[in-house]
Write a structure and sequence with these properties.
About 75% of the residues lie in helices and about 0% in strands. It has about 150 residues and is mostly helical. Helix 2 crosses helix 3 (about 45-55).
Length: about 150
């Protein structure tokens, strides 16, 4: 059946592929960062280097720096894996969004005119694309494949 006969427009034929690519790229960025921070650097060393050291002289309590610095690598790893697989996408997207907000806040505390175009904006852009699109359009995700098997 042609696109016209089915009522669909040919303008949207690539949407599932575009969402797959956006999801894979975003998932890889966070999964690989989390993998390195968890298994090579270690969460404690990440907290010491990236949070406690640079922010110890700010208004932020040291305990919050240790907590955030050790949790973020694990969240990046797990949420990146969920996004890569397309499994529990809402949870994965929310977790990565929270990481981006925390990172943005931290950079602004350290440097109020931080340039976001190299780090935050590309990741946020991919996340916004994924959040904006209907979940059902991301046909190549485990969530959608599982839903089709279950008849949803």
């Amino acid at each position: 059946m042609s696109d016209r006969a089915s009522g669909a427009t040919s303008l949207h034929w690539g949407r599932p592929l575009a969402l797959l690519l956006a999801r894979l790229i975003l998932g890889l960025i966070f999964f690989m960062a989390g993998f390195w921070k968890v298994f090579e650097l270690t969460p404690a060393e990440h907290a010491r280097r990236m949070f406690v050291g640079p922010y110890a002289d700010t208004f932020l309590p040291v305990w919050s720096l240790w907590l955030t610095g050790t949790v973020i690598p694990v969240v990046e790893l797990l949420a990146g894996a969920l996004v890569l697989l397309g499994l529990w996408r809402k949870v994965g997207y929310a977790a990565l969004g929270a990481v981006l907000v925390i990172v943005t806040f931290g950079h602004l505390v350290a440097e109020p005119l931080y340039q976001f175009h190299t780090h935050v904006i590309p990741r946020a852009g991919l996340l916004f694309v994924l959040l904006w699109a209907p979940l059902s359009e991301d046909r190549y995700s485990l969530d959608e494949l599982r839903g089709r098997r279950l008849g949803r």
